Amino acid sequence: MNALLQWAANNRPFLFFIGRFLITFFGLSILYALYLKYVELEGDLDLVTYWVSRGSHELARALGVADCEWACFMDGCYVGRPGHMVNILEGCNGLKLAIVYAAYVIGIGGWNWRSFLQMAVGLVVVQFFNVIRIGSLIALRDGGGDMYFYFLKYVFGVWIYGSVIVLWLLKPRIDRWLGQK
Amino acid sequence: MKKFLVIAMVVFCVLPSFSQSENPFEGTFDGMFEVPNDPMPVPQGVMGPLNPTVPLDGGLTALLIAGGAAGYRQYKKKKKA
Predict the structure, then answer these.
(1) For B51, which of A17, A78, A104 is closest by C-beta distance?
(2) How many percent of chain A have pLDDT more than 70?
(3) Which chain A residues touch B if contact means CB-CB below 8 Å?
(4) Neighbours of A16 (CB within 10 A)
(5) Cα-based angle A33, A87, A73 (whole degrees, multiple of 5)
(6) Do residue B52 and residue A141 have CB atoms under 8 angstroms apart?
(7) pTM for the full model?
(8) Distance from CA of A32 to the nearest CA of B (A)
(9) Which residues of B touch A91 (CB under 8 A)?
(10) Rounded to whole angstroms, how far apart are CA atoms B7 and B15?
(11) What are the tens digits of pLDDT across the range B24-45?
């Protein structure tokens, strides 16, 4: 017990980081869950899924998916050529990853304008990576074959989680760039 | 005697069918052209979903743990400096 208390006393900043990290993660997750409940009661689709599917649709068209259609319903969106569509649900929109990224930024930097700025930019960057992921998957599904499943399961998994980790690694540089000592 | 036994066997076999009032084949074709209410079973592994989802499952907990580890590394670095 004494050893644990000693360790806690020596690593107080790390414990503060863990506290801020978890409070931010659960706080933002609860806010997002409340927002999802609200849009469900309104009979609407959440805006994150809407914009991610719209961006993916535009990217798929730019990648050469002819007759790419886009239709949104209460439970999600369908994007792609008829017969080769991809279903984009709330769990595919990548916001949970952006929340984990934001929790880390707040955990390390604390509650200040630099952290909030990085949080906002990180949200956009993670969604940008997610739009590239889904747009490419639509193009792969349109092309047919097993490549779609391979990319979905392995390549884009590494791609999207890697984007968050790269942002974390770049954080000290971004802090310096924003003038933090 | 043999003839008598054969005739007796045939009579005993046929008699119960005369006692049934309805056609034994009637139930066989009942509801043959009706559409079933339950969804048709699809063999698993043969046909995938028509519009598959693009989930991000399985990695969130790992990412949280990675975040904690990265934070610990940052503080170790700061402590050394």
Answers:
(1) A78
(2) 99
(3) 11, 13-14, 17-18, 21, 25, 76, 78, 80, 85-89, 91-92, 94, 96-97, 100, 103-104, 107-108, 130, 133-134, 137, 141, 152, 157, 160-161, 164-165, 168-169, 172
(4) 13
(5) 65
(6) yes
(7) 0.75
(8) 16
(9) 53, 55-57
(10) 12
(11) 666 777 777 776 677 665 544 4
Q: Determine whether the interchain pair B56/A92 forms a contact, defined as Cβ–Cβ distance below 8 Å.
A: yes
Q: Report the alpha-carbon distance of residue A118 to residue A125 in Å, rounded.
A: 10
Q: pLDDT for A16-58, tens place per residue?
A: 999 999 999 999 999 999 999 999 999 889 999 999 999 999 9
DSSP codes joined into one string, A50-93: HHHHHHHHHHHHHTT-TT-EEEEETTEEEEESTTS-EEE-GGGS
The predicted structure's pLDDT at residue A19: 94
Residue owning tokens 């006393």: A9
